Amino acid sequence: MTTQAHVALDPARVQRRTVGVLSGGVALGGLGVTVGITVGGLLARDVAGTDTAAGLGQTAGVLGAAVIAVPLARISDRAGRRAGLATGYAIAVLGSVLTVVAAVLTSLPLLLVGLFGFGAATACGLQARYAAADLAAPEHRGRALSLVVWATTVGSVLGPNLAGPGADLGRAFGLPALGGAFAISVVVFAVVALGLLLLLRPDPLLLARRLRGGGSAAGVRPRRATVSAVRAVWADPRGRLGLTAVVVSHAVMVGVMVMTPVHMGHAGGAEGTTLRVIGLVISVHVAGMYLFSPLVGHLADRAGRRATVAVAAGLLLAAAALAGTAAPGAAAQLGAGLLLLGLGWSCGLIAGSTLVTESVDDGQRPTAQGGTDLLMGLGAAVAGVAGGPLLAAGGYGLVAGVSAALVVPLVVVWAATAADRVPAGGQRPR
């Protein structure tokens, strides 16, 4: 299709198609991500023989999502969202294959490398939300972004419940039980990568730039461009609050969530039964993360991004208190706590991501978004790697308490931005 034909397209119609394609991709991709997340820590624990390794396994995936987000953003900046997202899912296919091989060989180093690559799928799911906002009208950015986040519900709620069947599949093919889940992920990620390559046309970012006359940061050295873009975000009160919201929300969520399956595993019981109960609790958590996203997007557009960030802080604190006081076998209390944790994450991610998007122009936007996801992932990686030692030292309650303390910086920045003003032509953080 020619450039002239792209420009002649109705942007509203292209936006609807873009949101539909992205929603389908992240719905299926979410299945592959969450089935792996559910058993990733348990697999690392079994391979290494210690609970501390469970935190390392989850952290490898989180760190992979963070680090890989930057080159994927650069690819998107140069060649469009389609190229960036398809590349990311291809990396996730390779990571999933390595994880299965590591399970067979009982090799922790290879497992960590595989989980690092597996994290690329998480990076793609997060960057897809930004792609949904490329062509959206300013007053509808929160809604557009939230619809793609919401679509993740389908696969993400089903994914954890495939942990048990995945174990059965692994045994049927002579694989370690927990390795079967990642075999499912291999197929899922390959289908998503191919689907995005074929269907995400015209590319939303490239079309948005043609319509608005914007450029890219492709001529700037990658590291310098990322630092410059993140500084631009931080210089704007909207960006400062948004960046803090996504980093804190993700760190708290990961800190509590990744240690929950290990905590529940201490309740004892048959492996198959325990996995299914863990899968159910994680499904409730994932439902909180994604199921109510359209309502959160509506709240961010109508009540304001700033008010939604405040709701996020309150929910994260309540979640840490409820989950942190639950016994390993208290599945109902843990499920309720993780539901609130997911809701708090959703509010922080959607409102914060919208603020970040609005704080920079089209030319810096993909790089700024990639830098934001890098910081978000690094914060979560620290929370994840600390989870194992904290669990060993003081139990699950200590993990939840330390995670709750991370909300304090968000409250401080939220209060500080109340009196800030943004550059001419902008608005206060709403």
TrEMBL record:
Protein's cellular compartments: Cell membrane
Record-linked SUPFAM superfamilies: MFS general substrate transporter
Keyword Transmembrane helix part of the UniProt annotation: yes
Domain of life: Bacteria
Topology term for the membrane: Multi-pass membrane protein
Name of this chain's protein: MFS transporter
Extent of the signal sequence: none
InterPro entries attached to this UniProt entry: MFS (IPR011701), MFS_dom (IPR020846), MFS_trans_sf (IPR036259), Sugar_transporter_CS (IPR005829)
MF annotations from Gene Ontology: transmembrane transporter activity
Major facilitator superfamily (MFS) profile domain segment(s): 18-421
PROSITE patterns in the cross-refs: MFS, SUGAR_TRANSPORT_1
Keywords of this entry: Membrane, Transmembrane, Transmembrane helix
GO cellular component terms, semicolon-separated: plasma membrane
Pfam families noted in UniProt: MFS_1
TM regions (residue ranges): 21-43, 55-73, 85-105, 111-132, 144-163, 175-200, 241-262, 274-295, 307-327, 333-353, 374-392, 398-419
Primary location: membrane
